[in-house]
Amino acid sequence: MSNTEVEPHETGSRVARAPGRVARLIQPRTVPLGGPRGLVVTRTIPDCSLPTVGAWCFLDQGGPEPHLSRLLPHPHIGLQTVSWLLEGAMLHRDTVGSEALIRPGQLNIMTSGRGIAHSEFTPGDEDLRTHLLQLWIALPDAARWQAPHFEQHSELPVVAGEGWRGTVLIGAFAGARSPAAAYSPIVGVELRIEPLATAALPLRADFEHALLAPLGEVEADGVALARGPLLYLGTERESLEVTAGREGATLLLIGGEPLVEGLVMWWNFVGRSHEEIAEAREEWEGRSRRFGPDIPAHGGERIPAPPLPAVRLTPRKRRPELLDA
Ligand code: MN
């Protein structure tokens, strides 16, 4: 995805505080992704109270609705993009030569390292009913200058317990590990909870976690969760009981070690300083080889970078005390 929010949006966590066991809702905001038939997504992180959950630094949900994506090539640095569809299909192309059609149940994960560009198009010329989750994972300092690469995983481990089953997108969950490249202690799982079932989900106490309910309704730790907000769960949980409503539910569980590095995020870039971000912007505008060659299918077409804000970009602190109780 390409971030259309161009306001100064600095996020970060200079000092990771283990927040303990909490259950607070992060309310979503609505962001148009651009284009005449582009999706309107709900974004929950980064949030002014909580820029990250583990190394997860961005979470958009779009659809389900008819959609025709024509998202032209745009750059990324310092992150991994994670695309997961609940419905529909999307064609990914990038500047390391990948061309991959993603469908529900498949994982696209693109590691930008020092720089890559990609496009995301709905296959064909017609609107396609699409329900998608798009996330970014911040690369830790030791991994963020690596060469860019792209992976598609169609075979992901499936785990199950009483009343639930899960597909492990990244990291390890309930004894199964995803083949997706991970560069920090992290987890991402799609969970299906059976109607009216109470699932006891095993968690890592040193991770912080958060739960999204793209389909259906659940109650988790006494909090009702339906489509829209993200339920932030803090750390120090070895398990979580989740009870689904009559329709059952499809959930996304994300988590990881609270991030200790201060992130500076602007447009599609994740860095550590204003200067790094400004340099990446200059290089994209100057058609630097940093982001690879033009993608043949798009000729020279691409999304130009917005102007930098007048203020210096700085990391933002975590303020979980501001979340809805
Ligand atoms: Mn993107």
In short:
By secondary structure, this protein is mostly beta strands. The chain has one domain (11-256): Jelly Rolls, CATH 2.60.120.10. It has one helix and 23 strands.
What is the first-to-last residue Cα distance? 31 Å
Major β-sheet, in short? 10 strands, antiparallel
Q: How does CATH name the architecture?
A: Sandwich
Small molecules (ligands, ions, cofactors) in the structure: manganese (II) ion
**What percent of the residues sit in helical stretches (DSSP H or I)?**
under 10%
Which value, in Å, is the CA radius of gyration?
19 Å
The total count of strands amounts to 23
CATH topology: Jelly Rolls
Counted up, domains total 1
- Give the SSE string: EEEEEEEEEEEEEEEEEEEEEEEH
Helix count? 1
Low-pLDDT segments: 8-15
Structural class: mainly beta
Report the principal-axis shape: globular
Regarding CATH, which class? Mainly Beta
Overall residue-averaged pLDDT value: 92
The CATH superfamily label reads Jelly Rolls
- Fraction in beta strands: over 45%
Q: What does this protein structure show overall?
A:
The protein is mostly beta strands and 325 residues long. The protein has one domain: Jelly Rolls (Sandwich). It has 1 helix and 23 strands. It has one helix spanning 274-285, and strands at residues 21-26, 29-32, 40-45, 56-67, 70-76, 79-87, 90-94, 99-102, 107-111, 116-121, 128-138, 149-153, 158-161, 164-173, 176-177, 186-193, 198-202, 208-220, 223-225, 230-234, 239-256, 264-266, 269-271. Strands 1, 13, 14, 15, 16, 17, 18, 19, 20 and 21 form a 10-stranded antiparallel sheet that branches. It has a 7-stranded antiparallel sheet with strand order 2-3-4-11-6-9-12, with no helix packed on it. A hairpin with a 2-residue loop joins β13 (158-161) and β14 (164-173). The longest helix is centred in the last third of the chain and has 12 residues, at 274-285. It is globular and about 55 Å long. 46% of the residues are buried. Residues 8-15 have low confidence and may be disordered.
